From TrEMBL:
Pathway: Cofactor biosynthesis; tetrahydrofolate biosynthesis; 7,8-dihydrofolate from 2-amino-4-hydroxy-6-hydroxymethyl-7,8-dihydropteridine diphosphate and 4-aminobenzoate: step 2/2; Cofactor biosynthesis; tetrahydrofolylpolyglutamate biosynthesis
Stated name of the protein: Dihydrofolate synthase/folylpolyglutamate synthase
GO MF terms held by the record: ATP binding; dihydrofolate synthase activity; metal ion binding; tetrahydrofolylpolyglutamate synthase activity
Enzyme class: ligase
Its biological purpose: Functions in two distinct reactions of the de novo folate biosynthetic pathway. Catalyzes the addition of a glutamate residue to dihydropteroate (7,8-dihydropteroate or H2Pte) to form dihydrofolate (7,8-dihydrofolate monoglutamate or H2Pte-Glu). Also catalyzes successive additions of L-glutamate to tetrahydrofolate or 10-formyltetrahydrofolate or 5,10-methylenetetrahydrofolate, leading to folylpolyglutamate derivatives.
Keyword Metal-binding listed: yes
Keywords noted in UniProt: ATP-binding, Folate biosynthesis, Ligase, Magnesium, Metal-binding, Nucleotide-binding
Pfam families per UniProt: Mur_ligase_C (PF02875), Mur_ligase_M (PF08245)
Source organism (scientific name): Roseivivax halodurans JCM 10272
Homology family: Belongs to the folylpolyglutamate synthase family.
Positions in coiled-coil regions: none
């Protein structure tokens, strides 16, 4: 690759540290100091951690804030098709020119000092947010919380912890309590924390840290409730009840994510109409996303195509539960996973529900699990399985066998990104 494009600079940044993940804040603090501490010059920050639901909660919160007339910055990860997706400035994805200039500046400030890709790009996002006027910053944790590169905000307007589940144990700990301790690391003294549904072990840890820091908790089941009634979402907190449309993001698991977003909006004093917009206007790709157009849809015109980037056991349960609510159709999974994931745990909920799994590699990922291994694990949990070279090849197999099938591409956000790129 030639030229000073954002992709070119990002490639250079990948070489600044031998590890992709190396959790510590030392390198981040060093670079932020060189940049003049942009993290101290931000609009009010909503900092969001959790195992599942961070991105969906952020998307609904953003939709509500923007509907109320606010300018909102947002930082999310990973990206699906292009890095630009990670940095949203006052509502718009960062432009190529702005991103290239920003990355150049941050790379020059860092020099050859060791720093991970996520750390240096997070510093770049914070610098961008400090320079563009906005009313709020929505900041999604990358991994964990306590030592995540985003955890540099001294006093956020609020923090959010979505459901904690087993994932990334090699970095965060083997038990739910240990993982919850890492997620709860974003809680700051005096800043309120909105907490989604948690198992008891995780909630105990979160409550203990909040109490130690004097951080007010707004917890599901105690301070707010969300449920469905007659095809509507009902949210209730201490200020009253909201009767709202169901979230635009499909899946019953989105009811709790919607509740967390609404709890944030209500705490910030956002009105009822904007809360309704949070449900109806939110968009978040690769979370039970229906693929209706593009080359893949043209390859299997009679099929019903879905895409989801979930990759841990809790996500498997949620996705399978949503599929069970859809009109009956033969269901096939096209699945690619990384070798760092609990593959059996993710796939087990689909046993007896899916006709077959077709295992594919995750394109461009060194840690992709070989399709033969994915297929072998699928067979062991009760899913008939075979392999294909690509997602498109897998879709062709299904289309020949059952043209009217429901096809879910799943197992990895990186696979989801590849599918979206392939689908234009």
């Amino acid at each position: 690759m030639t030229g000073n494009t954002s992709d070119h600079i990002l490639q250079r940044m990948m070489a600044l540290h031998p590890k992709i993940i190396d959790l510590t804040l030392d390198r981040v603090w060093r670079l932020l100091e060189k940049l003049g501490h942009p993290e101290r010059e931000l609009p009010p920050v909503i900092h969001i951690a959790g195992t599942n639901g961070k991105g969906s909660t952020l998307a609904m919160t953003r939709a509500g804030l923007e509907a109320a007339g606010n300018r909102v910055h947002a930082y999310t990860s990973p990206h699906l098709a292009r890095f630009h997706e990670r940095i949203r400035l006052a509502g718009d994805l960062i432009s190529e020119d702005a991103l290239t200039s920003l990355l150049d500046e941050v790379h020059a400030a860092n020099g050859s000092d060791p720093i991970t890709y996520f750390e240096i790009t997070t510093c770049a996002a914070l610098l961008a947010f400090s320079r563009e006027p906005a009313d709020y910053v929505l900041l999604e944790v990358g991994l964990g919380g306590r030592l995540d590169a985003t955890n540099v905000i001294e006093k956020p307007a609020a923090t959010v912890i979505t459901p904690v589940a087993l994932d990334h144990q090699q970095y965060l700990g083997e038990t739910l309590a240990e993982i919850a301790g890492e997620k709860a690391g974003i809680i700051k003294r005096g800043s309120p924390c909105i907490v989604g549904p948690q198992v008891e072990d995780a909630m105990d840890v979160i409550e203990a840290r909040a109490e130690r820091l004097g951080a007010p908790l707004l917890a599901r089941g105690q301070h707010w409730h969300s449920h469905t009634e007659h095809g509507r979402l009902v949210f209730q907190d201490e200020t009253g009840l909201l009767d709202l449309p169901m979230p635009a993001l499909p899946g019953l698991h989105q009811i709790d994510n919607a509740g967390a977003a609404l709890a944030v909006l209500r705490y910030l004093g956002i009105g009822d109409e904007a809360c309704e917009a949070a449900m109806t206007r939110a968009e978040w790709p690769a979370r039970m996303q229906r693929l209706r157009r593009g080359p893949l849809a043209e390859t299997a015109p009679a099929a019903e195509l879905w895409l989801d980037g979930g990759h841990n056991p809790a996500a498997g349960v949620a996705i399978a539960a949503h599929l069970a609510t859809l009109p009956e159709r033969p269901t096939y999974l096209v699945c690619g996973m990384l070798n760092t994931k609990d593959v059996a745990g993710f796939l087990a909920p689909f046993a007896g529900q899916a006709e077959r799994l077709i295992a594919v590699p995750v394109p461009g990922e060194a840690n992709t699990l070989a399709p033969e291994e994915t297929a072998g694990i699928a067979a062991r949990v009760g899913l008939p399985a075979e392999t294909a070279a690509t997602g498109l090849d897998a879709l062709r197999i299904v289309s020949r066998e059952r043209p009217d099938a429901r096809v879910l591409f799943c197992g990895s956000l990186y696979l989801a990104g590849a599918i979206l790129r392939e689908n234009g």
